[in-house]
Each structure stands twice: as structure tokens, then as C-alpha cells.
Amino acid sequence: MQLQERIDAAVDEIGKVLLGKEPQVRLALCCLFARGHLLIEDLPGMGKTTLSHALADVLGLSWKRVQFTSDLLPADILGVQVYDTRDASFAFRPGPIFTQLLLADEINRTTPRTQSALLEAMAEGQVTVDGETRPLPEPFFVIATQNPVHQSGTYPLPESQLDRFLMRLHLGYPDPRAEREMYLRPDAVDSSRTQLRQVISESQLAEIRDAVNAVQASDNLLDYLQRLVAYTRESPEFEVGLSPRGALALLGCARTWAVMHNRSHLVPEDLQAVLPSVAGHRLVPSGDYAGDGAALVALLQRNVDVIRS
Q1: 296 SS3 class
Q2: Residues contacting 180, CB < 8 A, separation 6+
Q3: Sign of torsion, CA 161 225 221 261?
Q4: pLDDT (tens digit, 9 = 90+) per residue, 185-220?
Q5: What is d(CA 130, CA 171) in angstroms, rounded to the nearest whole number?
Q6: Does domain 3-203 have CATH number 3.30.1330.40?
Q7: What is the CATH number that goes with domain 214-303?
Q8: Does 3-203 match 214-303 in CATH topology?
Q9: pLDDT digits over 126-148, tens only?
Q10: Where exactly are the structural domains of the chain?
Q11: How many C-beta atoms lie closer than 10 Å to residue 48's C-beta?
Q12: Euclidean distance between the first and final Cα of the chain, in Å?
């Protein structure tokens, strides 16, 4: 079975418990293949936990969940040194972050201090506790969920924390056909009862990631990317445009999207497919513009030509 067939099989397997969400499932897999971290912003009950558990199953990854609350401390995530009275020494007790897939549930319900405890881990794949640095498992993938900012008891994520997430997704309500199927097969969409089969091994995941580096980008494609980035920095609707890191994130995700569709070279549709998820949370509207990040992305796609005339 070729890589694309395995990726399609993974999408189909996850679709058994997350009905009608194939585009979001593919983007979540793209984020993981691109060595990034995923932020899901949505109302409770939309399938965020189901998606994270399903991803762990089909990729054979260890999985842990942390429920973020207002009293959660950094040590509750990273781990602590525990004193052993038997030999009068300290031993490190690892926290739940020492896993391959971590679900950080409702991350914006905890304080900025605890939110920042994830920064080093997400950026460098390691944590430092009491001056000692410890590596995290490979692969290491964080899925954080976030409640809409209008809900009570939330602490908006600062820009530095948002930028650590390669992609942001919204699952949204299911379409009528998928919702009817949920009514008819409630047990089938219960991820706690449905054990999905692993379809991508650790070596195959590494093979997919290696294939991303070999994807070619033509000069015309890179010109298009640069025009997109320049527009976000120069147009009056944008207060903050894409940084160089944001531009590289967009390119990396587009390359991954190409691999997922069995292409060895980039096409403009690869950039357009991942642009909303990669750029939406990085773009800040100016004070005179009434739209949000999604509206800015739509403006960007509409006003930047694929080929310079």
C-alpha cells in the first residue's frame, strides 16, 4: 500500500467516529505530518476529543489528556521532583506532557503562566524542570482545544502562544446527513467504545515526513507565495501580517498537502487549501477593518492573483 493509500485509509478510519468532517481530518493529519501542533477552536461537544483520540489510534501513538482549569500549575503538566525518604534523594515524576499526542483541553481556561509551560515543549520537543532538560517522545504532537473568547472564564492566548500552533481549525456543526447517521448509530461514533485500527506505522509516518522535504516548488509558485505574504504586510486591512516564520509554515504545510495528494511538486491549490488554517490565527485586522482572521484570509485569496498579469 502506497503512502497516499495509507493516508486515505487513515481518513476513512477516523471518519467512522467523526462523521462528515473529512476536510478537517485531512488538515489535522497535514498538521501532524508537517511536525506542527494543532489548535481547535469550537463550542463543547463538537468532536474535538474524538478527533484527537482517533488520530492517536490510527497512528499508533501514546495519548494523554490534560483538562486545563484556572488552578492548574505548570508542574501539573511538566512533572515534579519528588523526595524519596528511603534514600534521601529526589526523583523526577514525569507529567502528562511525556506522551506522543497530548490533548490540552480548553487551554484558554487556565492562566497565562500555565499556558506558557507548553511553549518550550512545543517549540523544541523538550522540557526543563529544576534546571535539567528532558527530551519528549518522538513524534510529539499537541492538540489544544479552545473555547470561543466570548465564553466566561477564558484567558485569550497571547500572540506568542498562538504562533506555536501550526494550524487552527474549526470543526463546526455536522451536516444534516452526518447528524442523522449519529442519531441512527450512536454507539458507532462513541470513541470510547470504538477501537480504530492502526493504519500508519511509526516508520511510515517518518517516511511521509521525509517525503515532504523532497517536494519541489517552482519559481512561479514561490512568487505567488511572496505576493500573498507581501499583501498581508502592505494592505491597510491588516494590522499584523505574516512573519517569516508564518510564511515558512505556509510553505511547509503546502508541501505536506502535496504529498498527501501524491504530488512531488507544489501547485497553487496546495497553498490555497492550507492558507485559512495556517494564516487565519496569525493575521490581525487593522482598527478600521471590521472582519476577523477568516475574513482577512478570504480577502487575501480574492485579491492576490495566482499568476502575475
Answers
A1: helix
A2: none
A3: positive
A4: 766 566 555 678 999 999 999 999 999 999 999 999
A5: 39
A6: no
A7: 1.10.8.80
A8: no
A9: 988 888 889 999 999 999 998 77
A10: 3-203, 214-303
A11: 24
A12: 42
